[in-house]
Structure formats: structure tokens, C-alpha cells
Amino acid sequence: MKLPFELPPDDQISHRLDLCTWQEVEKYLTNCKGIIVPIGSTEQHGPTGAIGTDALTANAVASELSRQTRVLVTPVLPFGMAEHHLAFPGTMSLQPSTLLKVIHDLVISLAGHGFERIFFVNGHGGNIATAKAAFAESYKTAALRNLCVAKKLRCRISNWFLAPSVFKKSRELYGDKEGQHATPSEIALTLHVESGLISKQRPLPEPSPSGPIYGPDDFRLRYPDGRMGSDPFLASAKDGAVLLEKAVFDLTKELSIFLEDS
Ligand code: NI
Asked: Fewer CB within 10 Å, N or C, the chain?
């Protein structure tokens, strides 16, 4: 498969699906069968983090990845599986069974047009299991419906916050204050892309340590301010820019291998 970033620049083709015409998508498909889908969550991120953190970060990484590689990017799916955050106001969750259907339907829509490689850039750990289940269902549906791409269809979920360079840098910057939820690394990325959020930053008391995740009421009892072992006050917009660059670097390699894999 020819990768878009090996092609000469063509300003007629936007890298954003939402800004393309259908004819541009049809033309894109003659060169590349890959597409990037950012997926986040709308859930509490501690007393200083934005509810949309996971969607903002996934969208930022996916957009920059797309801009640099010219692989088409879809609009972000801002809702994910956040059942355990529902005891905090503002959280909007899709049940696993609903999210599975949403991801399945999006994959099958794209597969029906001839997309063979669907690369999800994920901002929320709670989406991983369900996304993988949705991929399995999608392969089955593609085969049952005899879609042209059925035998070639591949989906992948890439968690930007677990990319090796990001993981290493966040430990370097924040040590064990990175924690598990409302982490300084994800908050840093939101401060980089939405500077208005910097005004919410303030020192916070020691967080509850990271531990298990069960239902929403149990989560709020264990982690009363929403954080799990993290100190988001350590975050800065400057760190966010560095982490974005590292995420895009790692994901570019991962995306290239994924698109070329036969
Ligand atoms: Ni998050």
C-alpha cells in the first residue's frame, strides 16, 4: 500500500475527513486505504482537569499525526466507556455494549467504502477492552456481508499515553506523581491545546493512591476528588507540547507499520 506521506503534497486533498467532499475521499482511497479515528471520553478529571480531557488529547494527537502523515483523520468520538466516573457531575458514558455497537458501526461504515486499515487513537484506558471486542464483531460482520475489504480489514487501537516515548517522558517529568487518572501528562496536553485551562491549575492535597476500579459509587468513595494517585498541578503547557511531539513520533512509526502490514 502506498502511504500518503510518500505522495507529493496535494493541497486539493484535506487531511480532515469532515472538510473533504465525497469525491476527495473517493480519490484518497485510490492512494491509501488507511484512516485515523480519534476516540476519547467525557468524564471527570479531578478538581482541576477538564471533563473533555480524553477527547481533547486523543483529538490533538490524531490531528497532528494526520497533519504530518497526510493519512485522513475522522472527527473525534468524544464519548467512551466511563461508567465508573458517573458519580461525578458532568460525566457522560456509553455502556460497554453501546460503545461496542458505535465502534462496530463506524468501522463497518468505513469498511464499506473500501477503508482497510482503521487506526484508532485512544485517550482513555476504559475504552480498550470494548474497542477490541468491537473489532472482533466488525471482522465477523464484514465477512457475513461479503464486503470487498473483508479479508483485508484490520483495526488497531493505539493508546497515546502508553506510547513508549510518552511513558518514559512522563515518568521523567512527574515520577510516581503521574498516577493513574487525571495524570499530569494528559492535563499538560490539554493545557497545550486549550490555554484557557491553565487558569484552573492550583495546588492540590495529596491524592488517594491508585487502586482498583469497580462501580461509580465505590470509585467516588475511594477517590473522593476524582484523582488516582496523580498531581496534575505539576503539568505545564510546555510539557504538553513535548508530550504531543513524542506521541506523534511513536504513533507515526506504529501507523506506518500498520498500513504496510499485509
Ligand atoms: Ni483521562
From this structure: C
Q: How far apart are CA 9 and CA 1, in angstroms?
A: 17
Cα of 45 vs centre of ligand 1, distance in Å, is: 6
What span, in angstroms and rounded, lies between the C-alpha atoms of 100 and 241?
Answer: 32
pLDDT of 9 above 70: no
Distance of CA 232 from the midpoint of ligand 1 (Å): 11
What is the whole-number distance in angstroms between the Cα of residue 223 and the centre of ligand 1?
Answer: 15
Residues 122-168 have pLDDT tens digits of 999 999 999 999 999 999 999 999 999 999 999 999 999 999 999 99
Instruction: Please give the C-alpha separations between residue 48 and each of 5, 38, 104, 183, 242, in angstroms, as whole numbers.
Output: 38, 24, 34, 11, 21
CATH number 3.40.50.720 is the correct assignment for the domain at 17-255: no
What angle do the packed helices 237-260 and 53-69 form, to 10 degrees?
Answer: 60
Cα 180 to ligand 1 centroid, rounded to whole Å: 9
Q: Determine the distance separating the centroid of ligand 1 and the alpha carbon of 90, expressed in angstroms.
A: 14
